[in-house]
Write a structure and sequence with these properties.
The protein contains 6 helices and 4 strands. The chain is an alpha+beta fold. The chain has a single domain, classed as Glutaredoxin (3-Layer(aba) Sandwich).
């Protein structure tokens, strides 16, 4: 009986976390890649694109909760990047279909994938976001990638 109670509590807790965490767009993030490139050109920034499965991918859910939704991450990353989330949720076929051409174009093989682009749309880095599961680690990696890009 304890196992059933535990399982029910876990399931309800997870469902509540997912529904509340993903009921709205992330503050400071765009969902329009073309608009983000135009903004990046105007503001002389790079573009950070996260490909995510917000309602089914455990690493994506963890990254959103622990890094991408954090105000300190958004404030710091937004100084150098236009932030874009391209979501592939199982619960929203319309959104998934809208973003599918980007997954095909950029040959996305897993989630959560992050691609960094210059303002012209040229890719200069790609990695799995879950390699950097904390805000400070993620921001440090972004700084390192930008420093390397500037040397090239």
């Amino acid at each position: 009986m304890k196992a059933i109670t535990y399982l029910a509590a876990f399931t309800l807790g997870t469902a509540a976390m997912v529904s509340s965490a993903f009921a709205k767009e992330l503050e400071g993030w765009s969902t329009d890649l073309e608009q983000a490139f135009a903004q990046a050109k105007k503001e002389k920034k790079s573009v950070l694109v996260e490909f995510t499965g917000s309602d089914w991918c455990p690493p994506c859910i963890a990254m959103r909760k622990n890094v991408f939704s954090q105000k300190d991450f958004v404030q710091a990353a937004s100084k150098k990047f236009v932030l874009v989330e391209l979501d592939f949720p199982e619960g929203d076929e319309k959104l998934k279909a809208k973003n599918e051409p980007y997954a095909e174009k950029y040959k996305i093989e897993g989630f959560p994938t992050v691609i960094l682009f210059d303002a012209e749309g040229k890719e200069f880095s790609r990695f799995f976001a879950s390699e950097y599961p904390k805000t400070d680690l993620f921001l440090k990696h972004l700084d390192e990638v930008l420093a390397k890009k500037e040397l090239d």
